[in-house]
Amino acid sequence: MFARVKDFLYRHRRKFVIGGAIIGGVAVLSRYAEFKLLEWHDQQTRILMEKQKKRQHYENTHRTANATVLSLSLNMKEVISKELDADILLQAVREQPQHKHSIWEQLKIVGFSRAISTVYIASLVASAVRVQLMLLAGYTFGDVIQSCHAGAPISQTLQQKYLSVLHYLVEKGIPKLTSQVTQAVTHIVTGLPLGRPLTLSQLEAIFQEIKLILAGENSSQDDLYERKITKLEPWSRYVFEAPVPPEGDSGEDRILYNMLIETDDIIDSEDFSTVVDTLIQHGFNHLLDRMADFYPLPKSQQGFCGSNENWVDNVSRDILPNVSTSEVDSFPLTQITPTHSTSFSNNSSLPVAKLVPLLSGVVHGALSPTPGQLLQKILTVDKLDSLGANVYEAFALPFGQ
Ligand SMILES: *[C@@H]1O[C@H](CO)[C@@H](O)[C@H](O)[C@H]1NC(C)=O
Ligand SMILES: *[C@@H]1O[C@H](CO)[C@@H](O)[C@H](O)[C@H]1NC(C)=O
Ligand SMILES: *[C@@H]1O[C@H](CO)[C@@H](O)[C@H](O)[C@H]1NC(C)=O
Ligand SMILES: *[C@@H]1O[C@H](CO)[C@@H](O)[C@H](O)[C@H]1NC(C)=O
Ligand SMILES: *[C@@H]1O[C@H](CO)[C@@H](O)[C@H](O)[C@H]1NC(C)=O
Ligand SMILES: *[C@@H]1O[C@H](CO)[C@@H](O)[C@H](O)[C@H]1NC(C)=O
């Protein structure tokens, strides 16, 4: 009996040996797996925490960028009001009534330029600030997640030096941009009679034409060349001066130089240009919405239609649209009671002379940090967020790569 069992065992011993190995193997493996599992779990937790930290870091940067743009709103307003001074012209109208015709012609250009500059400046500042802060955040990401350092730490001094570039944007860039906008506006608007009624879509067409010139797209070149009108891009022209390579090959100056070169590349990229363009379009839409509020409803005004025409004729004859001159600059647009807010007919129109003070005053509301205003609207555009996120991701390399 036992002999048979022994024999059986003998004949199958290899199987038992192998079986034992398998059983032991499973035991060993599971202990190893457990270890691996723990290790994996730790790693996941670390990645998760890192992701969370990264997400927080990104969102903080986003918030800071928002706050920076809003805090620059006052500076933007000041520079626009200084470069395109409507008050001085209004005073001149009062003091030299004999020249009111030519002064109103200037006021027309200033009014249009102020509104359009506002759109361009808000769009450029919002985009440039987002790119700069996200790039800086990407660079400092390694310092934030201390465990895995990407490179040399970015000192406070270096960060400040990098951000001080924003002074250039406000002090030099905005005036430069304003002056180019004014040239394009002058080109388009000069021949527009003050008494000419404009429908909203005609006003939009004027904006579009100015936009085309500024994009360098309507190149009836001789004409533009003669008037020295150049297209706006590259955008880096307004954001900073071309960075100068430092003497040495290392140190903070070299890092700063590299950061500026990289910023320059982004700001002159097609992606950036597309984003700014989108923001500008949003800006114009907002502007037209605000203007629409002041267009009369033809139905309710039907009875006054005749006198309305008379008024327009009188304005064009007299060039004294006294009506709203006092509103220029002294009122934020929001404080003027809109005629209505919703639908209006395509045929409803306002004379240029009435539009000028409204356009001129738009800067105050548009660049105030109040929700629903142009600057806030621009900060919510998706494309701006994607641009910022892409820049952040590109520079925030994970795990010390
Ligand atoms: C930035 O500002 C915009 C506009 O106010 C807002 O919609 C967005 O949520 C803000 N983002 C952050 C991260 O604060
Ligand atoms: C733009 O181009 C069209 C057609 O080439 C031309 O008629 C128009 O005058 C141009 N506008 C400006 C502002 O140059
Ligand atoms: C326009 O001018 C005419 C004649 O000068 C005058 O009779 C009329 O009252 C004026 N209309 C308005 C709205 O000022
Ligand atoms: C227009 O304004 C001037 C000065 O601001 C004033 O003297 C004149 O009376 C005004 N005219 C009308 C029709 O309100
Ligand atoms: C305004 O014009 C557009 C196209 O020009 C047209 O589709 C729309 O129906 C018009 N609206 C009114 C109220 O006339
Ligand atoms: C708008 O103007 C066109 C012609 O200029 C006219 O046929 C149409 O009836 C007008 N529509 C309204 C709502 O006044």
Automatic annotation (TrEMBL):
GO terms for cellular component: peroxisomal membrane. GO terms for molecular function: protein-macromolecule adaptor activity. Pfam families: Peroxin-3. The chain crosses the membrane at residues 16-33. Keywords: Membrane, Peroxisome biogenesis, Transmembrane, Transmembrane helix. InterPro entries: Peroxin-3. GO terms for biological process: protein import into peroxisome membrane. It comes from the Eukaryota. PANTHER family: PEROXISOMAL BIOGENESIS FACTOR 3. Interacts with PEX19. Involved in peroxisome biosynthesis and integrity. Assembles membrane vesicles before the matrix proteins are translocated. As a docking factor for PEX19, is necessary for the import of peroxisomal membrane proteins in the peroxisomes. This is Peroxisomal biogenesis factor 3. It comes from Homarus americanus (American lobster). The gene is Pex3-L.
